[in-house]
Amino acid sequence: MKPLLEVSDLRVAFTVRGREVRAVNGLSYTLAAGETLAVLGESGSGKSVAAQAVMGILDTPPARITGGSVKLDGTELLGLPEKERRRVRGDRIAMVFQDALTALNPVIPVGAQLAEMYRAHRGAGRKEARAKAVELMERVAIPSAATRLGDYPHQFSGGQRQRIMIAMALALEPDVLIADEPTTALDVTVQAQIMRLLARLRDELGMGLVLITHDLGVVAGIADRTVVMYAGTVAERASARDLYARPAHPYTVGLLASVPRLDQDAGRLEPVRGTPPDPAALPSGCPFRPRCPRAEAVCAEKEPPLVAVAPGHEAACHFAAEVYAGEMEADSGR
Amino acid sequence: MWRYALRRLLQAVPVFIGTTLLIYLLVFALPGDPIQAMAGDKPVPDTVLHTLRERYNLNDPLLEQYGKYMWGLLVHGDLGENYDGQKVSAMLGGRWAVTAKLAVTAWVFELLLGITLGVWAGLRRGKLADTLVLGGTTLLIAVPVFVVGYTAQILLGVRWPIFPSAGIDDGWPYSYLLPGMVLGSFGLSYVARLTRTSLAENLRADYVRTARAKGLSRSRVVVRHGLRNSLIPVVTYLGVDFGALMGGAIVTEGIFNLPGVGQQVFQSIQLKEGPVVVGAVTLLVLVFILVNLVVDLVYGLLDPRIRYD
């Protein structure tokens, strides 16, 4: 099947005080219609920057896309003139941001913010756009939508605000929705509601969903495939099921060990030791090496390529096969 | 909102009493006898001195004088009478129009050019335009108004007579353009700088990123999503500054020989004409209080998160 969205070898760098900081170093993934891809990674792994590069909303400068390609339905988006790129944005690829309180304009009524999508992209009249806005709010289950059109973001609850944010992104029924940590700012119970809403809308509209998160729990319920990012590159790529069952990269093993599980008595949770590397001064060889319990001399010399450990399951580790075979679990005493 | 306006007006009462009392005390605490001052070096006959002092309540304790003055002002709307027998309201009457026209001209100049320059610089941070605006406004803030005033008058009024150099013979707006620009140059600089900083900051906000992700045009992103939020501090400044422009035009009115309130107050302070000074300043206080109230109400339109209760 032809992929809907195809990101290959995407590279983004920032120039900060004369130094080049490489935030994304060759990210590749594909997404099919109706599919959910989870992009996992900790803060600073480059996952949000990569998403903004796909959307085309990075501030350039300081950011610079130094290589790679982003194709939507076979059309290259990078290098498209801004005017045409803008037509794609919001219409065919839309984005939901982390904190709806700051991501929605605080001084414009939500109805107007929703209606703006139809007015800017479809040239809809005031009345028509307004009616569409009510429909949208009903679609994401905002009670008495018609009367709340004139309310401002601060007058809604956190969950409702994120629903409105989602409604806005879905206004023009995009082919691809990128959700950047859509539930991080919310209560756990509301998180589940939002994830269910996203899954429902994905199925109704048949869109591809890119879910960016650091939360492994969020991923498990909804994702088909996952990409684990570390220091701007892909550490591991697998189906969600395989990733949880048999991780093949020591970083993924560490991430899974740091999440409490109900089905196992893990005793003390093991955090991943150390901190993510400074993207301005990446270590030689494997970027995860300084934090890796499995590191050997070769890791400092050679950057590990992505190797397949099973069909559709790849990891960028010199010892991927061994890790996949379960060596790490024995090491960490589980 | 109306309740809020009413409460603010009630709060204005002690402010009004406090400021007018202070002015009254300051003006009448000036050394020297105002009646004697009118006669200059010549001796004033005791009977005349006595009659005039009686007539203007000058023999009463200061607080009682103030009380009688306020009673006349608030109950009869009477600003009193100067020591030479002229009604203060008549002395100030036509001058208010001149001062108001000057202040409005300066204010509009500040508003339009200040915001325009601020947006221009804010969108081009670190570029030439930004440096020019920052440098130019720093210069205008640093140079005293009388230097700006005389320079503008000599260059644009005399050397290249684009504008009338002095007086109000050409009427509004023509006669007021050059003095308005001089008077507004200081505020213009602040407005431009505030707009620049505020806009540049807001353009980095999350909701501006959202606006771009929605695929809106750049102008829509900047004006509707960036500028509107950026104008909140600018409106505050413009509001407070309108009062300052009304009261702070003494030097400008002097340079361009505009017969406004500022000129009158300056003369009256020299002549110890207390009633004129107090009358003019009292009205200025009222203007200040009302303008600030309007600004606070306009806030609510710009930022719905502000609630009036």
UniProtKB/TrEMBL annotation, chain A:
It comes from Actinomadura harenae. InterPro entries: AAA+_ATPase, ABC_Ni/Peptide_Import, ABC_transporter-like_ATP-bd, ABC_transporter-like_CS, Oligopep_ABC_C, P-loop_NTPase. PROSITE patterns: ABC_TRANSPORTER_1, ABC_TRANSPORTER_2. SUPFAM superfamilies: P-loop containing nucleoside triphosphate hydrolases. GO terms for molecular function: ATP binding; ATP hydrolysis activity. Its main location: membrane. This is ABC transporter ATP-binding protein. It is a peripheral membrane protein. Keywords: ATP-binding, Cell membrane, Membrane, Nucleotide-binding, Transport. PANTHER family: DIPEPTIDE TRANSPORT ATP-BINDING PROTEIN DPPD, OLIGOPEPTIDE TRANSPORT ATP-BINDING PROTEIN APPD. One of its GO terms (biological process) is peptide transport. One of its GO terms (cellular component) is plasma membrane. Belongs to the ABC transporter superfamily. Residues 5-256 form the ABC transporter domain. It is found in: Cell membrane. The keyword Iron-sulfur does not apply. It comes from the Bacteria. Pfam families: ABC_tran (PF00005), oligo_HPY (PF08352). The keyword Secreted does not apply.
UniProtKB/TrEMBL annotation, chain B:
Signal peptide: none annotated. It comes from Actinomadura harenae. This is ABC transporter permease. It is a multi-pass membrane protein. One of its GO terms (cellular component) is plasma membrane. GO terms for biological process: transmembrane transport. It is found in: Cell membrane. Keywords: Cell membrane, Membrane, Transmembrane, Transmembrane helix, Transport. The chain crosses the membrane at residues 12-30, 96-120, 132-156, 176-194, 234-256, 276-302. Belongs to the binding-protein-dependent transport system permease family. Residues 96-299 form the ABC transmembrane type-1 domain. PANTHER family: DIPEPTIDE TRANSPORT SYSTEM PERMEASE PROTEIN DPPB-RELATED, DIPEPTIDE-TRANSPORT INTEGRAL MEMBRANE PROTEIN ABC TRANSPORTER DPPB-RELATED. It comes from the Bacteria.
